[in-house]
Specification:
251 residues, Tumour Suppressor Smad4, six-stranded antiparallel beta sheet
């Protein structure tokens, strides 16, 4: 069995992990540190994405057996990267479907990021005053409904103001962010970017863990099954990985 330590390599700030002319024979997982992806545009290096612990990159060029699309460069000293060949990658997916879901979710997030960037670029070119074309489609809760998530250990409280509230950790590039951002409480980045959703339906609140979450969500001590809604009642104790919250209804 291959050990992760055998596949890992340490980089210092400014070290190149791969160039856009390199063959895409493997994918990479960040164990610690940060990585930035850039692309050459008319001689300038344009920032495409900033990646952090737990992020996976390099998959498309590995699967399609093409040259890399970007430059990948370490942004911090002691950045540790695990390199996974196509054979190891295939073996991991067959043995751990949760990893496959996480990768699928990550690739979908990259696609959304790209669409948002293109929308902004289009707006800047075709509008005298740049504006973001992507608008929020959030539906507010009825005025008579008041609820919140209280995080006693972190001295935080977040009112629930939409019929659907996403809880998680913002992405490093700042294009996608949850309604309740636990980034400051989750310094080690165990929370997924879209970890869970609290939604209001048929006069009741429900909690659902998003697909691809690795480190778990718990309701009154019971681990949730990803994608399955669980009914919430006043005083319910919720754990998003290791961050505890209490569901509250009322002012």
């Amino acid at each position: 069995m291959t050990r992760w330590d055998d596949l890992s390599r340490k980089y210092n700030k400014g070290d190149t992990i791969f160039k856009s002319t390199d063959e895409g024979q493997s994918a990479f997982v960040i164990q610690s540190g940060k990585v930035k992806l850039t692309r050459d545009f008319d001689g300038d290096q344009i920032l495409v994405e900033e990646l952090v612990k737990g992020d996976i990159f390099g998959i498309p060029s590995m699967l399609l057996n093409t040259t890399r699309l970007y430059y990948a460069v370490a942004e911090e000293n002691d950045t540790v990267i695990v390199e996974i060949t196509a054979n190891i990658f295939s073996d991991i997916l067959q043995k751990n479907p949760e990893i496959a879901l996480r990768i699928l979710f990550g690739l979908s997030e990259v696609l959304v990021n790209t669409e948002i960037t293109l929308a902004k670029m289009y707006s800047m070119v075709h509008s005298p005053k740049p504006e973001i074309l992507v608008e929020s489609n959030k539906v507010p809760l009825p005025a008579s409904v008041r609820a919140s998530l209280i995080f006693p250990g972190n001295q935080m409280s977040f009112p629930l103001i939409y019929t659907e509230t996403v809880i998680g950790r913002r992405d490093a590039f700042g294009k996608l962010h949850p309604d309740i951002d636990l980034s400051e409480a989750d310094k080690d980045k165990y929370i997924s970017r879209r970890h869970g959703v609290v939604f209001f339906q048929d006069s009741s609140f429900f909690l659902k863990e998003e697909l691809g979450v690795i480190n778990g969500t718990y309701l009154n001590g019971e681990r949730l099954k990803s994608g399955t809604p669980y009914s919430l009642k006043v005083g319910d104790q919720i754990k998003f990985c290791n961050i505890e919250a209490i569901f509250h209804i009322g002012p």
